[in-house]
Amino acid sequence: MENSETTLPASEAKRxxxxxxxxxxxxxxxxxxxIVIVGFGQGIGNKINTIFSQIQSGLTG
Length: 61
Hints:
rod-shaped
């Protein structure tokens, strides 16, 4: 009986440590996804700007 009582707090501590690690991993993953989205958005924005510039020059020229 003493054995299960002494291992229970250790397993709870390990579980809490794993939850903390999971939270950090998710935060890093979210940060990387945000960077990709921002980079993708800027690339698309430049392409759209080029398309509208071509349309504008076609209408005026």
